[in-house]
Amino acid sequence: MPAGRLAVRKTYKLFVGGAFPRSESGRTYEVRGANVALASRKDLRDAVVAARAAQPGWAGATPYLRGQILYRVAEMLEARAAEFGALGVAAAEVAAAVDRWVWYAGWADKVAQVRGNANAVAGPYFNLSVPEPLGVVGVVAPADGPLLALTSVLAPAVVTGNTAVVLAAAAHPAAALTLAEAVATADVPGGVVNLLTGRAAETAPWLAAHRDVDGLDLTGLTDADLARECESAAAETLTRVRRPAPEDFAADPGTGRLAAWLETKTVWHPKGR
Amino acid sequence: MFAYAPAPESPAVVDLRSHYGLFVGGEFVAPAAGGSRKTVNPATEEVLAEVAEADAADVDRAVRAARAAYAAVWGPMPGAERAKYLFRIARILQERAREFAVLETLDNGKPIRESRDTDVPLAAAHFFYHAGWADKLRYAGFGDAPAPLGVAAQVIPWNFPLLMLAWKIAPALACGNTVVLKPAETTPLTALLFAEVCRQADLPPGVVNMVTGDGAVGAALAAHGGVDKVAFTGSTAVGRQIARALAGTTRRLTLELGGKAANIVFDDAPVDQAVEGIVQGIFFNQGHVCCAGSRLLVQESVHDEVLDALRRRVARLRVGDPMDKNTDLGAINSAAQLARITALAEAGEAEGAQRWSPPCALPERGYWFAPTVFTGVSTAHRIAREEIFGPVLSVLTFRTADEAVAKANNTPYGLSAGVWTEKGSRILAMADRLRAGVVWANTFNVFDPASPFGGYRESGYGREGGRHGLESYLA
Amino acid sequence: MVATQSADGAGPVGGDGPTGDAGPVGRGRPVGGDGPVLADVGRTDRALRGFLHGLPGVDEVGAARRTAQLATRSVKTTAKAYAVDLAIRMLDLTTLEGADTDGRVRSLCAKARRPDPADPGCPPVAAVCVYPSMVATAAAALRGTDVHLASVATAFPSGQAPTAVKLADTRAAVAAGADEIDMVISRGAFLSGRYAQVHDEIAAVRRECGPAHLKVILETGELGSLDQVRRASWLAMLAGADFVKTSTGKISPAATTPTVLVMLEAVRDFRAATGRQVGVKAAGGIRTTKEALRYLVLVEETVGAPWLSPRWFRFGASSLLNDLLLQRAKLATGAYHGPDYVTVD
């Protein structure tokens, strides 16, 4: 630390609806010397409200625009490489995370072509299947690392028009919130990405049981009993669930995570004169 | 004067046995506990046959048979060979179509016209379509080496007994899985006839297994630890239970559940076809259709015109003997379902909606419900929110496209929707905004094996049919 | 919409109620005193366009789906016996060939009066339909019978003649004894949006018809869409048509079930709007009993009993009659029949 000047420390708060509020509970927990907001179920409730409000507009944005905005996230992330370094994130991981945002940015206007289909039905009908976003996706982020794993679960959820409520890994809140800052400065509309720090074990059951959540990514829940409870709670409204499973986030991500948060809508129309 | 004389289809083409066993490992076998259940013709309440009632031990035996066939025969078999078995099954279904249609109508109560012209031809088409996929799966877009999941447990409802069987078995087999299927307790007969088709096709023993019985059998099958995949079509309540039962496991699940579809008629609709679509939407198969257009949303400016035309058309429906070739509306499938429809219709009246049915004489024996139209329905009425699964239409009104979308989407379901308007850009905008897995624009209740079918939200997850449907059966 | 009811209300043939049967030759509707129906609809191209294009559209696939479903209706035993006789009674037995001669027309008239010489119980057909030059011959051959005499007119089949010629054609046919005139509309004018011209021509021909009853041939095979069939039907009805008729028989496709479905919907809606009932004639391409029964099913299920009589529904066909007779004989005897047991035309 340079002598003569006292550094200004960053306060790590939640990221909800495009703003950085403190937890309504007033609680914090300490990670590597920093006091980090400890999100409550009411913060979760607010985050879902923000995500729901943002969803139609985000899904209604052109894929071209969503792609550019995700690419802008990559730009903002790249520019913060030094800051991530100072938080202990390896340069290679930052680079991989940037590249992953770029990879998913490119999917915005291609996913319909890969996941959609013109169907040759036995009759005089136009029949087209198109992918649509589910709506609001709740994500329990994996603790596998500070940045790449989080990126790998968040980007594929939002690129297709979903909005996300992410429970960040308890051990890596600073990197997660620095990513949130990149998101906030990348023209991502408020509420598209919402990030709660704290203990997933406390908030995940509320996320799972929330009736206005359409998809649930339990990747980060390593406690099998809790994961089962969450999946069971999600069944109440038939919420789509991705179960926890070991994953190599350094590998080619494929399209599985894109597909997990898509519905298929099939439209019929007669062909007549 | 001009009138239709009775034109009954002959039941003689069906060779009904008095007792049916379970179909396990390629053989009809007696259930472990020896229980059985009578299946009746809902149009006459006559007993058609006694069908074995499986228990947990029988389910276990069937799953083991499916596992053995998967490991030894069906899993390793080249796709091109699997394809030929499925083509063979498709052909046999076509050849024995009349027999299947008659049996379906006897056991289910649906009009012979529908079983003959819709259920059976579509079932054959499903096998034909999926047969061709069996050796082309790596071109389906799900990776270079798509693999089967293993043993699929499949539980199907009573509304389209053979067709739902085809929707389940054809993709599972095409993808290399083996199956244990539980038909609905009130409609097991065409599934058991299909078991005979499997034998006729020389399908290796154990590739298809059938366990018959009630919901407990389905629950035991769905919860069986020896299966890799569960596929269920039925009520949202049961789907929810299955989803809970599978929580924390690695078993894959697809669900095709209930619906409360809005059929939206704008003032510029092609009125005569819209009326046909409304009728087809709610009275097809006595309204025992998960994607039925059970909520008619009609623009206020044409409400009276559309309702007059609809009543005139509904009055033309021919209700009665399902075996008569000119019958449009057959029997309700069971006493239990009739009671549910009756109760909900009474609730509709009690809540102040106006009930109308055309004058029509219903047979004395059997389970019957006259086609019914409720007008003056509000979004708060039970008949506008709950799935009735019967020939009961709830009519609501709207003023603008935005209001139509808001009302249409105001349900936890999301299976299907209909839009009637001659304006192309409005169709596309509506199709974008309706939260439903299938949107029929200027048509309704059309189905095809190449077209993915399945719901949003509480109507379930996963798709059946088309390229998309394969994903449910591939690792 | 307020109807301007024609003086005789129920329809063009005086005294016949909507369910009445074909009247005897010479009973036409009284001329004059007939204001235009839907008088509030202007008769300019612009006004007619506004009206006709404001009619509900027709989805072709949906219409075909409906008729395909109705084609599965089973008409057997007693129902079939009634329907076959009804189809015979609805038949406009037609010969419209360049090679027609007096002898051929007289032979056809004899068959019209008594289709099955071996069975006096077999009903006569509704009408004989010939070219104007054959009307006098046919009138003589049909004198004293209940069989109507229809003549095509207005430069049939193309209609490509000056209006004065068309009117003269009509006048001549009526003068020679035709009590039904089957005119063609100017499809060219219709397709180019000159609706007033089509309307006025129909109205003028209607006046020339006097007591004869006017069938307006839309030639639906040239109209291009079912929307146009609906518009043309309404235009003809607005102009005073007693019947709308699908086709000349010279163009393929001629009558199709979706086309007739749309025309039946049009006459149904027209009656609801104006109180005036208009008939429908399916002509061209109907050769078998099975096809004819499909049309009767279509009538039954679309407009029902009020149209199920020769007064309100007709078949225009030449070879259909023999197939109806074969079926009739099969029903009577239980054995399948051969073509040598019915007369050649």
From TrEMBL, chain B:
Keywords: Oxidoreductase
Listed InterPro entries: Ald_DH/histidinol_DH, Ald_DH_C, Ald_DH_CS_GLU, Ald_DH_N, Aldehyde_DH_dom
Positions of the Aldehyde dehydrogenase domain: 35-474
Keyword DNA repair assigned: no
Active site: residue positions: 256
PROSITE patterns from the UniProt entry: ALDEHYDE_DEHYDR_GLU
Pfam families found in the cross-reference section: Aldedh
Gene3D superfamilies assigned to the protein according to its UniProt record, in alphabetical order: Aldehyde Dehydrogenase, Chain A, domain 1, Aldehyde Dehydrogenase, Chain A, domain 2
Family: Belongs to the aldehyde dehydrogenase family.
Name of this protein: Aldehyde dehydrogenase
Organism this protein belongs to: Pilimelia terevasa
TrEMBL record, chain C:
Any single biological process term in GO: carbohydrate catabolic process
Pathway field: Carbohydrate degradation; 2-deoxy-D-ribose 1-phosphate degradation; D-glyceraldehyde 3-phosphate and acetaldehyde from 2-deoxy-alpha-D-ribose 1-phosphate: step 2/2
EC number: 4.1.2.4
Keywords, ordered alphabetically: Lyase, Schiff base
Classification of source organism: Bacteria, Bacillati, Actinomycetota, Actinomycetes, Micromonosporales
GO molecular function, one term: deoxyribose-phosphate aldolase activity
Compositionally biased region (Gly residues): 11-35
Catalysed conversion reaction: 2-deoxy-D-ribose 5-phosphate = D-glyceraldehyde 3-phosphate + acetaldehyde
GO cellular component, one term: cytoplasm
Name listed for the protein in its UniProt record: Deoxyribose-phosphate aldolase
PANTHER family membership: DEOXYRIBOSE-PHOSPHATE ALDOLASE
Similarity annotation: Belongs to the DeoC/FbaB aldolase family. DeoC type 2 subfamily.
Pfam families assigned to the protein according to its UniProt record, in alphabetical order: DeoC
Region (Disordered): 1-40
